[in-house]
Design brief:
Blueprint lengths: L13 H14 L12 H4 L1 H13 L9 H10 L4 H18 L11 H6 L3 E5 L5 E5 L6 H5 L4 H26 L6 E6 L5 H4 L2 H17 L4 E7 L4
Parallel strand pairs: 2-3, 3-4
Antiparallel strand pairs: 1-2
Helix pairs in contact: 3-4, 3-5, 4-5, 8-10
Length: 229
Amino acid sequence: VFQQNESNLHPHSKGCRAVRGGILARQQQQQPMVMPAPSLSSSSPVLASSLSELTDRLQDVDDLPPQQELARWLMATQNKVDEAEAMFRKSRSWRKQRGVDFVLNWKPPEVLRKYYPGGFAGFDSCGCPVWIIPYGNLDMKGMLSCISREEFMEFTLRIMETSMMLMRQNTLATGSPVYQHVFIFDMDGFSLKTATYSPTLDILKKLIAMYEANYPETLKAAYIINASK
């Protein structure tokens, strides 16, 4: 769905050279090199019991996600089944209202396809998708003069759904649960003007709220490189 954009990886960046030498090299293989991960049932008997109860409670829901994804809602609520069920149902309602299941079929405006700050880089050693976001060079003011804030958020949501799709594909291909991803934020060129631009702050606030409510426990790690001292 997304093609790697070499121009976004900042070849003169020391941090990104390390990424290019490791993560991207593995991307060229037919399948990512995956380290075995314990099954959810064996990693925590308490979690396995709660997961079984949560699954039973959600029998009225069509197309339940795989077990490794459903378990994330329990992790996010400290294994409280009532809260996990409520959170999951609220998110499922949000997905239907927003049409999230069809976002991968949406054709974004050309400016987003060309200039959105980020792209898929490959997989880490556990098969988790890795994304590089050269946020420091983002011209948000210029971009929002061509598209709406909603379109920018929709494209970000499309990236999230693409990452979830990659996790499911790797889970099926390797037999080990993959339910998290990694983000690398390159802040080279980031300025105070960018940080205080009010539309950017508004979009970030909404994106963070959307992520926490609907993609719990999916962030394996977030790295910031080339930050100003």
